[in-house]
TrEMBL record:
Location relative to the cell: Cytoplasm
Keyword entries, A-Z: Cytoplasm, Endonuclease, Hydrolase, Metal-binding, Nuclease
Catalytic reaction equation(s): Endonucleolytic cleavage to 5'-phosphomonoester
Annotated function: Endonuclease that specifically degrades the RNA of RNA-DNA hybrids.
Molecular-function annotations in GO: metal ion binding; RNA binding; RNA-DNA hybrid ribonuclease activity
Keyword Endoplasmic reticulum included in the entry's annotation: no
Species the sequence originates in: Microbacterium immunditiarum
Cofactor(s), by name: Mg(2+); Mn(2+)
PANTHER family: RIBONUCLEASE H2 SUBUNIT A (PTHR10954), RIBONUCLEASE HII (PTHR10954:SF18)
GO annotations of cellular component type: cytoplasm; ribonuclease H2 complex
InterPro entries on file: RNase_HII/HIII, RNase_HII/HIII_dom, RNaseH-like_sf, RNaseH_sf
Keyword Cytoplasm (UniProt): yes
EC number: 3.1.26.4
Protein name per the record: Ribonuclease
Length: 219
């Protein structure tokens, strides 16, 4: 099957309105363990005139052995990028949607520390729901776009950068608690992960508020 390459069609149109576009995409929303991560990638007119990095796709469509390489090219291509996090404890405390907003706010704070002014941007948010504005980021222009990570190169960059960051973190947590095999399943509801939960119970990194025993397999 031929997978369509993400383009810069939307970004170029939005850059007629604002000096920068910030694309956001989440990773780990459906996992049973570990944090949720939101990647943000900034594109300006100069970047939008360049060729999309080779191999850039929504992170789910990039083979795992190639993700780090593709993420590196994506990070070099965009003006700035960052990853924001919300922990499993925070997800339990405030719920997944508010946690996504919190993680995005932290990623945007990282951008601000590097001189980016998000209020000057149009923010492309993958999906159909704006979870950024309720997190207190009320001065932003947010455009939810369904399948942005598939169709928009900036969102694909945010996706793969966040995916590699979160996978790296989960591999590190595997070394701490190898019985859950997070190096392989990255905290998602694979059969081996659920079997480990049945055998060993929940760890501090699991989302204890979730109905983990009934969770479907999500990748």
């Amino acid at each position: 099957m031929v997978v369509a390459e993400p383009r810069l069609t939307l970004e170029r149109r939005l850059l007629r309105e604002r000096p920068i576009v910030i694309a956001c995409d989440e990773v780990g929303r459906g996992a049973l363990a570990g944090p949720v991560a939101v990647g943000v990638a900034v594109v300006d007119a100069a970047r939008a005139r360049k060729r999309v990095p080779t191999g850039l796709r929504d992170s789910k469509l990039v083979p795992e052995p190639r993700r780090a390489e593709v993420a590196g090219r994506a990070a070099e291509w965009v003006l700035h990028s960052a990853v924001g996090w919300a922990s499993s404890a925070e997800i339990d405390d405030i719920g997944i949607m508010r946690a996504l907003g919190l993680a995005t706010a932290r990623a945007l704070a990282d951008l601000r520390a590097h001189g980016v002014v998000p209020e000057e941007a149009i923010v492309i948010l993958d999906g159909n729901y704006d979870y950024i504005t309720p997190a207190g980021e009320r001065g932003l222009t947010v455009r939810p776009v369904i399948k942005a990570d598939r169709d928009c190169a900036s969102a694909a960059a945010a996706s793969v950068i966040a995916k590699v960051a979160r996978d790296t973190l989960m591999v590190g947590l595997h070394d701490e608690l190898p019985q859950y095999n997070w190096a392989s399943n990255k905290g998602y509801a694979s059969p081996d992960h659920r079997e480990a939960i049945r055998a060993h119970g929940l760890s501090p990194h699991h989302r204890a508020s979730w109905s983990i025993g009934d969770a479907p397999t999500l990748f």
